[in-house]
Amino acid sequence: MRIRRLAVAVGIAALAAGGLTLPLAGTASAASTLKDDFNGDGHRDLAIGTPGANAVTVTFGSSSGVGPGKAVTITQETAGVPGVTEREDEFGENVTSGDVDGDGYADLIVGAPGEQVTDWASGSLDVVWGGANGFTRGATVYHAPSADDERFGESAVLVDLDGDDHAQLAAVSAKKFWWYSDSNKPEDAYAPEVEFVPSDVTLEGLTADQFHGTGVGRTYTYVLYGKHADGSPYTGWVDGGPGDIGYRSGRIDGQYTGSTTETAATGDINCDGYPDLVTGQAADNSIWVFYGGSTIFTDEMEGMDKVTQDSAGVPGASEAGDRFGASVSVGDVDADGCAEVAVGAPGETVDGVKGTGSVVVLKGGKGYIDEGRAYHQDTAGVPGVAEPGDRFGSTVRLKDIDGGGRADLSVAASGEDIGTKADAGAVTVLRGASPYPTTTGVTSFNGADFGLPGAGISFGTSLR
């Protein structure tokens, strides 16, 4: 593999000046195989990013779900976490997870793209180390690998880039895609051999999955999204693998409608053994599903679907301002082996209440997406009341938190007022069930439950 080594001396000097000791890779254990089980108890945990408060709250999963009773909030003031909290940091703007150091415990990966680094590019990623006692082992900070970069840490993933069964960290800044060696140390950062992101694009997000190929050596494809200088959406892809990173790349927006500026998710919706890509286009009130297969992202794609609220079986009607597709997530709600798609429409009008928001859960199956069910704060069993500007559905996440074998639905309402605190935000969790999430035993909480300040923080801006 030909790789281009990057100049990172100044970045590493900045780490040393902060007194940070980089941890060695841990000894693998059988604590958990879940990418988001931070304490190794066998349950997936829910991480809630609130960049308005420069905080990430982790609610630990259990058979009874999640809630304020078993949770921790992490900031740059937390012991062992490098840095100092500043208003513009955006700590928690995006959150992901995975076992970075190979010790058997998932680690929390937090983006702070607004972080200002003296005499260096802006932005950072913090890897907060998980363990049997939760987050007690401190954190390692990653800064941009080159000084000409900006807003490093816009998004990150931890998957096996080169097919050697060892997961590697990859991240995007506003303009660049970076990946790390098997060591996952901050100094071992690389850029693609061939730059594939157009010069006028500002990147907003990154996801990855094994969309195509078969058998041993099946590798990941990275999907990057953002916008061109004229505001139009950009979605590009680059294949991982043992070859030269960057040569096998392309663009969805250059070939097909379905490009996105703000959200994408993956999962096997049609039960064929290949993950599928879902993109949300809130400006168009639509989502697109690109079906994985042997030749995804080529002229011989396995197929794609556009879904709107005017599609057969989808609740609601497509109206200006609904922002259907502002957030998407994929997970198997009913344990039938086919993943469902949760779609946020935070601008939805419900019973005449503008901008209260809703979420639609669309059924997966061998016949592809064909029907759905809507949830909002006037749905029986869902806490709260539909009020103007609540933006219920601003962020959604499907994942099995209680270990019941079905994906639970977590929904943020970024504009929810808590008492006199405007736009404090709240998160509601509905348990997975057949055929759709149940409104029995719903849990709801907000930043005040975790000691965060109230007004304007939009608790739940990101969910992992």
What does this structure look like?
- There is one protein chain.
- The protein has 464 residues and is mainly beta.
- 2% of the residues lie in helices and 32% in strands.
- It has one helix at 9-17, and strands spanning 4-5, 46-50, 55-59, 71-74, 94-98, 107-112, 124-128, 139-143, 155-159, 168-172, 177-180, 189-191, 202-209, 221-227, 233-239, 249-251, 264-267, 276-281, 286-290, 304-307, 327-331, 340-345, 358-362, 372-375, 392-399, 408-413, 426-431, 438-446, 462-463.
- The protein is globular, with a radius of gyration of 21 Å.
- Residues 1-30 have low confidence and may be disordered.
Overall 3D geometry? globular
Return the average pLDDT rounded to an integer. Answer: 89
Q: Separation of termini?
A: 33 Å
Structural class by secondary-structure content: mainly beta
Flag low-confidence runs. Answer: 1-30
Number of strands: 29
* Rg (CA only): 21 Å
What order do the helices and strands follow? Answer: EHEEEEEEEEEEEEEEEEEEEEEEEEEEEE
Strand order of the largest sheet: 1-12-11-10-9
Sheet of most strands: 5 strands, antiparallel
Q: Helix coverage percent of residues?
A: under 10%
Strand content: 25-35%
Number of helices: 1
